[in-house]
Input
Amino acid sequence: MIPVFDAHADSLLEVVDHGRDLPVADYVKGGVQAQVLACWIDPKIPPQQKFPYLEKLIAAGRQQLATFSSDLILARCGCEVEEANRQGNVAILLSLEGADAIDRDLDRIAWLRDQGFSAITLTWSRPNAWASSCFDHQDRGLSDLGRDALREMDRLGFIADLSHASQKTFFDTLDAYNGPVILSHSCAYALCPHRRNATDEMLQALKTKGGVIGVNFAPGFLDPDWWEWSKQLAQQERANVARIVEQLPPDPILRRRVSEEYIRPKLLTRRLPASRILDHVCYIAEKLGTSFVGLGSDFDGVLALPQGWDGPQDFPALAEGLKSRGFAPEEIVQIMGGNFLRMWHQLNN
Ligand SMILES: [Zn+2]
Output
């Protein structure tokens, strides 16, 4: 089986919010060698509760590592991923998605490193004290604080992840950061002009910097027609969702979860074929070569996964798909995981 390095999944949130376990058996079935688990803090969580929520996610991760200690090991760099794999374990990597829980307290970057984190996504889809996000009306790029944060990240050995970042944040960071830079879960803007995706100019700049982009499996980032359709659906259902949510206690996580569960079956009436993931991989590989593209599934962060990719157990089918698109075996190894492994190896230097 071809080893997989999935650069982004939100499964820790499922552990905390729903009491589920990580899909360990599916990692093994799918040949997952390394899984980056993102710690995303819902922007609706009040500021003073953000850091405690992050601590909760970390505690959940630790508890899962203890429960599945014969299958999972925490890793912080490429060497530790390889060591975990040699012992027959899946390497778990931790990433903070959005700096909101750190905000102005840059000492927390060292604390994150102590907790085993190896990557930070500078922003989620909202601006924060460090940088502008891709949905901001005014793109201010990196702030002075964001630049200080990058210096600290570089000193300690972090990957800077620019998925969700604005254009200016993206290019500012490529200029300012000396450490490794990735887009962990984004797609090609040329195929789907969504603000979350990378333009050709961004892709070329990422390659020049030596970074890697992980194609996201979210249908809204893969396909413009699906995105339009899902927006219309959300619009039509807005009043229904509001009616359901206003009967709930004012808990932002509960309210988000309930509205997601309401809309999910409706989104699943129109599943995008998984071949659309391959379209984006092929496009980026044609532009940049096969050394700069990988996978960032966004599993457990996507409401309606594509038809044919229900979870980590289906990575081998994706590898088969790459074969049918004419990629050579060594190129498939690069795309499925080798490229991201190379990025995490840079943390040893
Ligand atoms: Zn994300």
